[in-house]
Design a protein that fits this description.
734 residues; alpha/beta; eight-stranded mixed beta sheet; 30 helices; binds acetoacetyl-coenzyme A
């Protein structure tokens, strides 16, 4: 695996918390990193019109480290002692950020509960002089909790305020479960916590979470004025307010509803609810204690998994030796106006990039343009965009059936049918018609990219840009580098991904790249189980219970069974030793049950069709020579089914690591969550195995399945075995 400068990756710091027993080779670098951070933290203090103005300047986002916390507390204490000071304003010196939350790199599993009154918001609430939080930008998690500990809040309308802690597997632990309900009511407070979505300063003002709104350039003067106007003898602390809580009867209803809403697979949701309930029934002070207890008892694997993912997502774009790309991509040519080409065009247009759509003839071109226009029309009708955005998008769209105008394009993305010769001829044309700096991307999902342009002199500019369907919705962009792709073109791919607001994962060329490659055994194992007597709907249910939006068979219907057959044939061709040659999908296609696009697949219009598919299942089992069931269908637990489908995926992910195809193991976690909707609260495919099972158990389970079935997909690969033997995590990248 290529080495990278991981000193820049905070994922490493968190990794240490996730895998405390792993002798992590980068630990010294992490320590240096936090030292540098400590030096950068600057909290300034000045007195302006008898108001102490405390400015936090801890780059990049004012995450509250223990150092920043004590610096703020010191300055507040100084202000309380300063006889020239009547009030305090707490604000940020970093544009765009008030505070992004507690410093996640400092998170460690708690060994004991702490005194909640020592938390920063409680300290601020204990100030004898009024403190006004002046918010301009992100004010999240511990940031909002800090602001709620202040006596009052001023914000700019576009600030973003929220409590996203549940997304990290923890609960708001600095009094957020107590003060937010008391400021805006339980219903809205729980909504903010459970959706994890921030609200604007304007909405926060409407909810009375923020006392005053103002523009950025008036923030300080407004905060000073408000601070001077507060009479502390009349002030009621946020923690003790009663006036905004709902009535007893309303609360009963709200809690009954919330009981049904919380997801048992994400225990932090129930714990947040427990803390809120405790505070509402027993009062804010006791509520703080309950919150601390719930925080202490958070489900540690879920927290580890989610925090791992937070840093993993931010690490994917850090690729060694890739130069900065200082240009913007302003124009993209899309070859092929079908589902994928159309989706890519829409993604570009939505982000202000000009699109030239090319088709082979006028009829196809008109159809492609029409589909794109209809998508924007529907967005306009549903008020997802306004007229100005609609006009801008369509003005940026042109169509052609020749290569006229391609000379000036910044980037071209080919999205024609998956036929090697067709793709080869497109790239031959592109090498003639595009300028020498143009990025030449292919959206193939299965074809070896090296083979597409083996004889062209523009090979260094050819890159895989694999979008996931629907391309304008799915958040992942797989960027595939061949042995010839230059670092500059990788930089350009990363830039395109940024402009399209997608998360990139860079992977070296191989059949299936990262996502299709690691997930090909998933479909295989599902077919294997059906042939051994487990019903597709039972399998779908188990995977849904695991946290996937839909199970593998329902997913096949959505993607299209003909597409599925084509993809699995290509994967079977490349990885025949560990592919399961099940016939069910082909039998379905032969029966014209192609999935949702024709209204019939494993399901009929999304509804089960037990009778309709019974004979087809039997036919598949016959073709497989009616293998002996592993056990009685009723004896399979959800966990059995989940492991049979997912452990081979972990195994394949480990092979991808073994073959050095990704820059860091955690890229596969991000790819699985963003490309396959693997449940994020499980941390991604490799983190799931690491955190919830461990390398050794993963190895043993796979080995047992291999011994029982003789199927190669279950045979643990070398990398996995090495990790298990050496008691290392799978994320260690041995
Ligand atoms: N702690 C430590 N580092 C953080 C951080 C945090 N709370 N928030 C962001 N960072 C780091 C990121 O890891 C990233 O570091 P690198 O450059 O080394 O990769 C850097 O700050 C910039 O972050 P982004 O790339 O995410 O920047 P952005 O502008 O795209 O997004 C943001 C900004 C919306 C604030 C986003 O960073 C974010 O959502 N941050 C986390 C917010 C959050 O979850 N807060 C709750 C924290 S937990 C808490 O507060 C517990 C509690 O109850 C007290």
């Amino acid at each position: 695996m290529q080495t990278i400068d991981r000193s820049k990756s905070r994922a490493d710091v968190v990794f240490k918390h996730i895998h405390p027993n792993v002798d992590h080779k980068l630990e010294p670098t992490s320590i240096q990193h936090s030292d540098v951070k400590a030096q950068e933290e600057v909290v300034t203090y000045e007195v302006n019109k008898q108001v102490a103005v405390i400015r936090m300047g801890s780059k990049p986002v004012n995450a509250v480290s223990s150092h920043l916390k004590s610096s703020i507390e010191e300055k507040v204490s100084e202000a309380n002692k300063d006889t020239n000071v009547k009030a305090i304003v707490l604000m940020s010196a970093i544009p765009g950020f008030f505070i992004a939350g507690a410093d996640i790199t400092e998170f460690k599993p708690k060994t004991k509960t702490e005194d909640p009154t020592t938390r920063l918001p409680s300290r601020l609430e204990g100030s004898t002089k009024p403190i006004v939080a002046a918010i301009d930008g992100f004010c999240l998690g511990g940031g909002l909790e800090t602001a709620m500990g202040c006596t009052a809040r001023v914000a700019t309308p576009n600030s973003r305020l929220g409590l996203p802690e549940l997304n990290l597997g923890i609960i708001p632990g600095w009094g957020g479960t107590q003060r937010l309900p008391r400021l805006i009511g339980v219903k809205k407070a729980m909504e903010l916590m459970l959706t994890m979505k921030p609200i604007s300063g304007k909405e926060a003002h409407d909810l009375k979470l923020v006392d005053q709104l103002c523009e950025s350039n008036q923030l300080l003067s407004t905060a000073i004025q408000l601070a001077l106007s507060i009479d502390m003898s009349k002030n009621i602390k946020s923690l003790h307010r009663q006036d905004r809580l709902e009535s007893k009867a309303e609360l009963e209803q709200i809690f009954a509803h919330l009981e049904k809403m919380v997801d048992p697979r994400q225990p932090q949701q129930r714990q947040a609810l427990n803390a809120v309930k405790a505070g509402v029934t027993r009062g804010g002070d006791e509520g703080l204690v309950a919150e601390e207890e719930e925080s202490f008892n958070v489900h540690k694997p879920t927290a580890k998994a989610l925090q791992h993912l937070f840093f993993a997502e931010r690490a994917t774009s850090k690729i060694p030796n890739v130069p900065a790309y200082n240009k913007k991509i302003n124009s993209v040519g899309v070859i092929g106006g079908g589902t994928m080409g159309g989706g890519i065009a829409i993604a570009c247009l939505e982000n202000g990039i000009k699109v030239t759509l090319k088709e082979v003839n006028q009829k196809f071109l008109d159809a492609g343009l029409e589909r794109i226009k209809n998508t924007f029309k529907s967005k306009l009708e549903r008020k997802r965009i306004n007229q100005k955005q609609f006009d801008a998008a369509l003005n940026n769209l042109t169509g052609t059936i020749s290569y006229e105008g391609f000379q000036t394009l910044d980037c071209v993305i080919e999205a024609v049918l998956e036929i090697v010769d067709l793709k080869k001829s497109v790239f031959k044309d592109l090498s003639k018609h595009c300028n020498k700096e143009c990025i030449l991307g292919t959206n193939t999902s299965t074809i070896d990219i090296e083979s597409i342009a083996s004889d062209l002199d523009c090979r260094d500019r050819i890159i895989g840009l694999h979008f996931f369907s629907p391309a304008n919705v799915m958040p992942l962009l797989e960027i595939i580098r061949t042995s010839h792709t230059s670092n500059e073109i990788i930089a350009a791919g990363l830039q395109l991904s940024k402009q399209l607001r997608k998360t990139p994962v860079v992977v070296k060329n191989c059949v299936g790249f990262a996502v299709n490659r690691i997930f090909f055994p998933y479909g295989g194992a599902a077919g294997f189980l059906v042939d051994r007597g487990v019903h597709p709907y039972r399998i779908d249910k188990a995977l849904k219970n695991f946290g996937f939006g839909v199970g593998p068979f329902r997913m096949s219907d959505i993607v299209g069974l003909d597409v599925g057959v084509m993809t699995s044939n290509s994967m079977k061709g490349a990885y025949s030793d560990r592919a399961y040659d099940g016939q069910l999908k082909q039998i379905m296609v032969d029966q014209k049950r192609l999935g949702d696009k024709v209204g019939r697949g494993y399901y009929i219009k999304g509804k089960p069709d037990e009778e309709g598919i019974a004979d087809l299942i039997k036919a598949s089992q016959n073709r497989a020579n009616n293998p002996k069931p592993l056990k009685n269908q009723n004896e399979f637990t959800d966990a059995d089914i989940q492991e049979i489908l997912l452990l081979p995926v972990v195994n394949e992910a480990c092979r991808v690591v073994q073959e050095n195809l990704v820059y860091r193991v955690s890229d596969l976690d991000v790819a699985s969550v963003m490309g396959m909707n693997f449940p994020r609260f499980r941390g991604g495919i490799v983190a799931w195995a690491d955190v919830f099972l461990g390398a050794k158990k993963t190895f043993e389970k796979l080995d047992r399945l291999y011994q029982e079935t003789g199927m190669e997909m279950f045979k643990p690969c070398e990398y996995l075995k090495k990790c298990a033997d050496n008691n290392k995590s799978l994320e260690s990248g041995l």
